Amino acid sequence: MSRGGFQGRVEKDQDTCYSFWCGASLRILHAHEFVNGMADTQWIFSAKSSMGGFAKVPGEHPDVLHSYLSYVALAMHSEENVQCLEGTLASVSAALNLTRRSLAWIYTQLWQNHPSGAPLP
């Protein structure tokens, strides 16, 4: 991540969705501290559209996929104390791409509704 942002492969340009894919992978591997969250946050915001949302790269039109994955990447960075947005982004489970609140709800439902009293794997 030399210029901010992530590349999917060597010799490819940065893409906002890779901020999630690479960032989440590193979080799952307990290596997210090696991510420069501020540089990635700046990269993501460079692709922000004036009409809302985020594009794949700066200067292109925003789309739902890149907007969603950009927000999730920003949420992961905000957990690392990077002030990236006004307001609060929900804490995210990188492995399941769910908010921790949703994950807790699912876990509670499985625990309460499973016949053996134990959650499903």
TrEMBL record:
Record's protein name: Protein geranylgeranyltransferase type I
Top-rank taxon: Eukaryota
Taxonomic lineage from the root: Eukaryota, Fungi, Dikarya, Basidiomycota, Ustilaginomycotina
Cofactor: Zn(2+)
Gene of this entry: CDC43
Enzyme Commission designation: 2.5.1.59
Prenyltransferase alpha-alpha toroid domain segment(s): 3-83
Record Gene3D superfamilies: 1.50.10.20
Species in which this protein is naturally found: Malassezia nana
InterPro entries according to UniProt: PGGT1B-like, Prenyltrans, Terpenoid_cyclase/PrenylTrfase
